[in-house]
Amino acid sequence: MERPVRRPPAGLGRDRRRTRRGRRRRQPGRRPVRRAVRPRRAGHRRRRPADGEGAAAGARAGRRRRALGRGRPRRPGPGHDAGTHRSANHPSEEHHVTETPSTPAPDRGAAESQAEPSCLERLRQARPGLSGARARVADTVLTDPWKVRGASIQVLAQMAGVSENAVSRFTHALGYTGYREFAQALSLDLGKSLGLYHSHPVELVLESRAGLGGPLDLVQRVMALEVECMQDTLTNLSEPALRHVVHRLAGAPAVLLLGTGTAAPLCHMFSYRLASVGVPVTWTADPMMMLAHVSRLSPGDLVFAISYSGRSRDTVQALTYAKERGVETVGLTANPQSPIGDVTDASLTIFSEAVSRGTAQFGARVAGLALLEAIATAVSEEKGGSTSELEELGATQARFNDLPQDWRNDS
User: Fold this and answer.
1) How far apart are the first and last CA of the chain?
2) Which tens digits make up the pLDDT trace of 56-114?
3) Is the Cα torsion angle 79, 83, 86, 88 positive or negative in sign?
4) Cα(168)–Cα(387) distance, rounded to whole angstroms?
5) Which residues are CB-neighbours of 320 under 8 A, at least 6 positions away?
6) What InterPro entries does its record include (predicted)?
């Protein structure tokens, strides 16, 4: 009678049955397999690797093997050159390894962000290569980027008279992944350039550098720009709106001027001119003071706000609060399509669209100052045109401001 053959359960190799703890259990009738263990050196103690050290060492070893060829790198013997060894799979192939000092890699993101042109600069550079529907979209954006800012792809397509797919192809031609990335870049570009262009004529400086005209040429360009902006403002000024504003400033029981940033000095000067002709006026640039002053106004009073972009949050919120209280509001802005035009009963435009948007930001300040000076003169005439009070005020100012004749002897 033959003896039955014992077989291991399915899923396990031959005599590799394991216990719950994971140790191998010897099959009955078989001898245990003993492995040769290399004896430790005297006094040697195995160091326990720190957390993550073993994985890091294994990754470094893998990178060395991939760089030197497949297989484990052999340890160089006594007669070997330290910089030359042979691969395990390719004994005849020599690999020369030179150690280089580990230097930190340059930050590519910072360098690319510094060298990457802005959205409008990228658009101006790409405009000569665009044609058809994409060219119409580019012209629409360059004509009035502030109007395009925040618009959806459907609105921009209607403004340019093209399809939405054409707008999408236009953004891809500029290097953007889609319209959302283009809209975000445009908003960021306009937000950064608002203060810069309002305080510095960037386009005129670039033109002067290209022409190498020197300081005199730059001064002439700036003066010509200021004159052009004032002429455009006068040409496009709405006479009905101007008459209404002058009439309300002359007859309002109380006038409040609002403006922040670069509009604050205009409010300060306009307040002085109106007070000189007898208008009960006050001004503020503080957001909390705006609300406090508006809360003291009554129907029949007037709030006059100045904002170049028309998007100043504190100014728009104060105007909204004034309208809720039934107070009439007037705005002076360079962007009549902005939110300030929605919360004012009448608005005056500082400059015309005939001037390019970038340089007009700089010229709007001077043109707005000249317009406010002219309005103050018209208000004086609306109130009767008496010069006796102005003469008295001028004499008092001269008496207090002029230096005495013996001012050099004062110590």
Assistant:
1) 137
2) 667 777 777 666 655 444 555 554 444 444 444 444 444 444 444 444 444 444 444 44
3) positive
4) 63
5) 343
6) Homeodomain-like_sf, HTH_RpiR, RpiR-like, RpiR-like_SIS, SIS_dom, SIS_dom_sf, WH-like_DNA-bd_sf
Q: Tell me the domains of the chain and their CATH numbers.
A: 117-193 (1.10.10.10), 227-385 (3.40.50.10490)
Separate counts of helices (H) and strands (E) for the chain:
16, 7
Summarize pLDDT for 210-264 with one digit per residue, the tens. 666 677 777 887 788 778 878 888 888 889 999 999 999 999 999 999 999 888 9
Residue 111, by phi and psi: left (phi above 0), alpha (psi -120 to 50) or beta? Answer: alpha
| Ramachandran sector of residue 328 (left: φ over 0; alpha: ψ -120 to 50; beta: rest) | beta
H or E segment and range at residue 282: strand 281-284
Both structure tokens of 305: 């706000």
CB 331 within 8 A of CB 312: no
Sequence-ordered strand ranges (E) for 25-131: 84-86, 94-96
* CA distance linking residue 262 with residue 307, whole number of Å: 9
Place of tokens 């658009």: 123
Closest CA to 173 of 133, 220, 230: 133
Structure tokens at 286: 């503080």
Task: Name the residue among 249, 411, 222 with its Cα closest to residue 329.
Answer: 249
Ramachandran area for residue 212 (φ above 0: left; ψ -120 to 50: alpha; else beta): left
Instruction: Using the structure block, give the residue that is written with the tokens 């307040």.
Output: 271
Phi and psi angles of residue 82, each rounded to the nearest 5 degrees, phi first: -65, -25
**pTM reported for the whole predicted model:** 0.54
d(CA 302, CA 298): 9
What is residue 200's predicted lDDT score, i.e. its pLDDT? 55
One DSSP character per residue, 201-259 reads -HHHHHHHHHHT-HHHHHHHHHHHHHHHHHHHHHHT--HHHHHHHHHHHHH-S-EEEE-
Give all strands (DSSP E) within 286-381, no chain letters: 302-307, 328-333, 346-349
